[in-house]
Fold this sequence. Notes:
Blueprint: E1 2-7, E2 10-15, E3 25-35, H1 37-47, H2 51-57, H3 59-72, H4 74-86, E4 89-90, E5 94-102, E6 114-118, E7 128-132, E8 136-138, H5 145-148, H6 151-164, E9 171-175, H7 179-190, E10 194-199, H8 202-210, E11 215-218, H9 224-231, E12 237-242, H10 250-258, E13 259-267, H11 277-280, E14 286-289, H12 300-303, H13 318-330, E15 342-345, H14 349-358, E16 366-369, E17 381-382, E18 395-400, H15 404-416, E19 421-427, H16 431-441, E20 445-446, H17 450-454, E21 461-464, H18 471-480, E22 484-487, H19 495-507, E23 514-516, H20 524-533, E24 541-547, H21 556-559, H22 564-580, E25 584-591, E26 605-611, E27 616-622, E28 632-638, E29 641-646, E30 650-654, E31 661-662, H23 670-683, H24 690-705
Amino acid sequence: MRQAFISKGSVSVHNLPIPSIKSGCIKIKLLFSAISVGTEMSAVQGTGKSIFQRALDDPKKALQVLDILKSQGWKSAKTKVAGATEKLSPMGYSVSGIVTEVGEGVYDFTVGDEVAAGGSGFALHAEYVVVPKNLVVKVPNGLDMKAASTGTVGSIALHGVHRADLRLGEYAVVVGTGLLGLLALQMLKASGVKVACTDINNKRLELAKELGADLIVNSLEEDPVNAVQNWTGGFGVDAVLFMAATDKDEPLSQAFRMCRRKGRVVLVGVSGMNINRNDIYRDEIDFMISSSYGPGRYDDNYELKGQDYPYAYVRWTENRNIASYLDMIKEGKINLDKLTPKVYTIDDAEQAYKQIENDPEGHILTLLSYKTDNQENNQTVFLTGTAKVSRNDKISIGLIGAGSFATSTLLPIIHKHSDKFYLKSIQNSSGDKALNAARLFKAEKVVSEPDEIFTDPEVDLVMICTRPVSHAKLVINALKNNKNVFVEKPLCIRMDELNEIEDFYRNNPNGPMLLVGFNRRFSPFISQIKLKLKQRSSPMILHYRMNAGFIDYGNISHIDGGGRIIEESCHLIDLMLHLTEAEIESFYATKIKSISGKFKPTDNVSITLKFHDGSVGVINYFSLGSKDLPKEFLEIHFDNKSITLDNYQVLNAFGLKYSGYKTVSPEKGHEAELLTYWNSLKTGTWPMSLRDLINVTRITISISDENP
């Protein structure tokens, strides 16, 4: 399929595999998509800036890179910067099209439905998109699909109007007569509100007049505050909708001064935010923010998990805003024809953006169109310039899941050791991530479905780096196709899944090799500790602290899959098993009891492990610690000797003849892990026993399932 991207200040169109359907989602064959001129042109210009200029514009991102440099080292930071500068960024968030497939758990849509959809990262400028169900609405019968493609853009304006909460006969000012401002004007007029529009562009102001504005003011030619005060008999307006985009402070100051006493200003656009207290204090002006499409935006439970808000308590969600806006177009209350929409084909996307840049006044509303006659086929995309090589002794890899961990940690290692590994193919639910990873790390091809990797006879090793909720199914399918597997931890998140994997090996004792990403045991620090433990004569006391850091409980890490205890504490249980070389006899866990405060038991737990050799291990995994405290600390006590490991950077020993070991950045074993697995695949010896993989996973799931 064809999809538009931005990179280095320009727009280009590339071939990608058609995305695969996901649970709770709807696959749509696009007919039209709306270009958000302000947002997208700003993004195009932003990608054309140097890394230095981007750092000046957004110091937080520079600090993120410094954090990576500090916590993960130069290589990861370098990869992060390279990915940011070279990547193709997808665009778009407002589309219309035809449903071609519905995912599990979707009941209100059927194949063939005409729909409008929204969502950054979902409703892209691409021939096919897969969008969560709460971001999709049916198009009213007979509504033109060009108009329907503006549904999400229109919902932004409508949410701003709802936030203003104006009544019949009241006065309003719309600041900025771009697309959003002109839509808001029409909505307000349809509601019986008297509307003034301000801008610095006379052509757009004349268009606003044609669309029903009661007053138009060019703020470069006259004082808008004085004009509005005269218009309202000296009282000021009930509300101002700030739809403009500027980095200056004065327009917002003017908006406050246009209001009546106890009036309100709703910020939909962008403004300088140095607010003069005198503008708002005396008259008690309310300043409100209108967040994107409406309630549900930025809530993973709503957008990703499909949990709707009750109609009686949240009347206007982002979904209901889109639907209402489409109804207004159908009823003739919104006139898009006067905006003279410009339509370009997806293959002419680059030209479309250039025309917008050269003639912004003639491109208030710009759409991309898509072919209606092409048949869906999940084609493989081969990357030009990436030659197929002779494999020789290389392990050929098919990667499923090209998220941040894969691209920042694993793929750089694979690329570094290209004498041992060959990156055959990459699959990801969002094709742009797969394409970017393939381009950056020289993969041979990008494929649409995991099955294309499972059934490829040239793939030796399937690497699975998706969300934990999908691990078990992918692992089992790979194993059944006789593929060796590396799966990032955890192996699975439920006991029935673990039993199915165990049953596979019970029925196939000589089955393919399986390794879970328990990288800590492969760290060079742990190798040195193992040498010091070799001659011990007594049991050990082990204590591991993981200061995991707080993640909001609405984050996908908590709501999609087994949660953080399963995802991370499995590492630590495996490490203690590796250090003691003894079976775990018993275990118990104690979680905090959530009485007050923001912290919950789901990521605050103390785990005690009792080993067959008499050793005892205690793991404290928590999110309630200080972010200034290093993330990980291990201490081991035995034979009147002690060893400490601080964040995989500093190793010290007490009571032992050992000078210590330090590294500049943490060495957590990822590289050694993959090299060990390469050797195992060549020699046929498992890097860690299947029994240990199963037992660690079983204990972790049991701990996660326990109530506090």
